[in-house]
Amino acid sequence: MSLPNKPVYTGGCQCGAVRFRIEGALNQASICHCRMCQKAFGNFYAPLANVTPDDLSWTRGEPKRFRSSNHGLRGFCGECGTPLTYEAPDGIALAIGAFDRPEDVAPTKQWGVEEKLPYVDGLHELPGFPTESDDEATFLSDIVSFQHPDHDTETWPQKDRP
Ligand SMILES: [Zn+2]
Ligand SMILES: [Zn+2]
Questions:
Q1: 9 C-alpha to center of ligand 2: Å?
Q2: pTM above 0.85, yes or no
Q3: Are 65 and 75 in contact (CB under 8 A)?
Q4: In angstroms, rounded to a whole number, what is the distance separating the alpha carbons of residues 20 and 24?
Q5: Which residue range(s) make up the domain with 61?
Q6: Which helix (H) or strand (E) holds 39?
Q7: Ligand 1: distance of its center to the CA of 77 in Å?
Q8: Is residue 91 part of a domain?
Q9: In the beta sheet, which residues pair with residue 67?
Q10: pLDDT band at 159 (very low <50, low <70, confident <90, very high)
Q11: What are the tens digits of pLDDT across the range 17-49?
């Protein structure tokens, strides 16, 4: 008898020193507007997907952790600083932007709305432009990315990197 295939999610930090794998369905995905999440992510709010701890494995490296309260830990890459986890007594959540396919992890709830920044609800109405339309960023024409690709790799960093 074969078990039905579990969904698999992978991801990691920007530099590739820390990679994760989730085998199993994600639990609730949400954004949190609380001030601690704003600081931990250096951002307007934190996009987080709850995972079942037994489904999660660190396949390369492991996050460093900052104890942000008596109950909470914030995991991040010690090499590049990418925020990766929120860990509390009731579970662990991963940063949605760190997934290889963040487009598959849509948030369905907002928490901490009492601390929501006043302009957040209008962000989607800002005028939008493609990256290449920034005429002052001439360095973009020969940019070489050192960001880890959005899939697992055998070795990293690449050998030919300066
Ligand atoms: Zn990193
Ligand atoms: Zn929060």
A1: 23
A2: yes
A3: yes
A4: 13
A5: 8-142
A6: helix 35-41
A7: 5
A8: yes
A9: 73
A10: low
A11: 999 999 999 999 999 999 999 999 999 999 999
